[in-house]
Each structure stands twice: as C-alpha cells, then as structure tokens.
C-alpha cells in the first residue's frame, strides 16, 4: 500500500503518507477487490514499514528535504 501510494504521488511528506495509509486501511482499500474487515494499522506500524522499505532501497528520502519520500 505504501509503495502503491507513492507510485501515484511520486513524492510525499512522510506525515501525509502515514495518514493516507491509515485512511486507506480504515476504508478497506488494502488491495483491489479485497476488503479486510477489522484490519486497522497504526502510525507506528506504518512508520516501521516505511523504515523497512527505506532500508531495502524501495523508497528514498530527498536530500534537501529528508521528510519527503520518493518511490
């Protein structure tokens, strides 16, 4: 979901990304055609996933603005 959002937006402030992911989870937009009832993620969960994706090289930070993430 994180990468799917960033693929569309190209770059996004980390706070906005967290809010977008949580909003999508609450609306059941995790995967096209599937809804996960009762699934809820928290900001700590999303930030943990973001850090993992940064470490794996899927995401990167802008040099001049490290709070902005790019896919």
TrEMBL record:
<dbReference type="InterPro" id="IPR036390">
    <property type="entry name" value="WH_DNA-bd_sf"/>
</dbReference>
<dbReference type="InterPro" id="IPR019559">
    <property type="entry name" value="Cullin_neddylation_domain"/>
</dbReference>
<dbReference type="InterPro" id="IPR036388">
    <property type="entry name" value="WH-like_DNA-bd_sf"/>
</dbReference>
<dbReference type="InterPro" id="IPR045093">
    <property type="entry name" value="Cullin"/>
</dbReference>
<protein>
    <submittedName>
        <fullName>CUL9 protein</fullName>
    </submittedName>
</protein>
<feature type="domain" description="Cullin neddylation">
    <location>
        <begin position="1"/>
        <end position="67"/>
    </location>
</feature>
């Amino acid at each position: 979901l994180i990468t799917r959002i960033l693929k569309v937006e190209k770059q996004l402030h980390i706070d906005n990304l967290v809010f977008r992911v949580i909003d999508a989870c609450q609306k059941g937009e995790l995967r096209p055609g599937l809804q996960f009832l009762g699934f809820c993620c928290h900001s700590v969960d999303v930030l943990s996933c973001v850090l993992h994706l940064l470490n794996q090289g899927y995401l990167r930070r802008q040099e001049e603005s490290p709070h902005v993430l790019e896919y």
